[in-house]
Design a protein that fits this description.
By secondary structure, the protein is of the alpha/beta class. The protein is built from 14 helices and ten strands. It has helices spanning 14-20, 38-51, 64-76, 91-99, 111-124, 135-141, 143-152, 167-178, 195-198, 220-229, 239-253, 259-271, 289-295, 306-314, and strands at residues 10-12, 23-28, 56-60, 79-85, 103-107, 127-129, 158-162, 184-190, 233-237, 276-281. The longest helix is centred in the C-terminal third of the chain and has 15 residues, at 239-253. 54% of the residues are buried. The structure holds ligand AN7.
């Protein structure tokens, strides 16, 4: 089951490079078929679900896993069901899951509660659980590491990633290890949803970056091992810092990513890094039009005559 995921662009970030003094590159995972890195693992997980003759695929999600699972399930002719925290996922992701014909369940609870429930559901039925607790997901997602090394010609010195359920950082580390290399992994959590930094689960996580609004990451130990083994770090960025990086990427680098993705760059700007640095921009900005519109300047109303247009364009 494939939508030809992966092989995403790796572009230089001249402005962020100038600000940090590092050689900064952006891995545009929003260029995947459903607009996020989740597709890399979903192709493998849904292919496995088909081979295991699963009756359905299910996931808990802050949005992107839901959109990806729904797309690959549709392609496989499998029933897809996604459990999302009610009112807490970005509009684009919801539209995707619905358009792909998944059953979208809005849970009156958090992502962490949703994940605990689907794990139990998958134990009781012939249903494939396609969250990143599923190892096929990690196996697919590790290909990002292979690609970055191939695209640069050498491994980067540092990889900056946003961290939510911690599957992605686990996967990148596995990929780098299989390529016999060990860049420092710099993970960033939103300050209001930073269990790995605090060292304890967060009961009521809160952040503008809804994708990483997660209080009890499933890949906790794997992620902490990756940070330690790579001599990396996991730290927090505030919502204001995330939104500043989000705006800067759009306005100065020409790259529109979603807020969670901007956390990688926010962390780099805040804490710095040396050498060649790759920031993983995990999801496309169009996923979350509401945050963009809240953040952006307003449109200019204009009368349909040349003077008015001249004033509007050049004034
Ligand atoms: C854009 O979709 O957890 O640390 O349910 O959508 O592997 O969880 C999304 C996570 C970063 C964090 N950036 O990755 C989900 C979900 C974006 C994301 C993350 C997510 P993990």
């Amino acid at each position: 089951m494939t939508l030809d995921e992966g092989d995403t662009p790796l572009v230089q970030a001249p402005h962020v490079s100038e600000l940090t003094g590092a050689d900064v590159w952006l891995k545009l995972e929003g260029a995947n078929p459903t607009g996020s890195f989740k597709d890399r693992g979903m192709t493998v997980a849904v292919s496995a679900a088909v081979s295991e003759a699963a009756e359905a695929v299910v996931c808990a999600s802050t949005g992107n896993t839901a959109a990806s699972a729904a797309a690959y399930a549709a392609r496989a002719g499998l029933r897809g069901a996604v459990i999302v925290p009610e009112g807490k996922i970005a509009t684009g992701k919801l539209a995707q899951a619905l358009m792909h014909g998944a059953r979208v369940v809005a849970l009156r609870g958090s992502f962490d509660e949703a994940l605990a429930l689907v794990r139990e559901l998958a134990r009781r039925h012939r249903i494939a659980l396609v969250n990143s607790v599923n190892d096929f997901r990690i196996e697919g997602q590790k290909t990002g590491a292979f690609e970055v090394c191939d695209q640069l010609g050498d491994p980067p010195d540092v990889l900056c990633v946003p961290v939510g359920n911690a599957g992605n950082v686990t996967a990148w580390w596995r990929g780098f290890q299989e390529y016999d290399t060990a860049p420092r992994l710099h993970g960033y959590q939103a300050a209001g949803a930073a269990p790995l930094v605090r060292g304890a689960p967060v009961e009521a996580p809160e952040t503008v970056a809804s994708a990483i609004r997660i209080g009890n990451p499933a890949r906790w130990e794997d992620a902490m091992n990756a940070f330690t083994a790579s001599r990396g770090e996991v730290r927090t960025v505030s919502d204001a810092e995330i939104l500043d990086a989000y705006t800067l990427l759009g306005a100065r680098e020409g790259v529109f990513c979603e807020p969670a993705s901007a956390a990688a760059v926010a962390g780099l700007l805040k804490y710095g890094a040396e050498g060649r640095v790759v920031c993983v921009l995990t999801g496309h900005g169009l996923k979350d039009p509401q945050t963009a519109m809240n953040r952006a300047s307003s449109v200019l109303p204009c009368e349909p005559d040349l003077d008015s247009v001249e004033a509007a364009v050049l004034g």
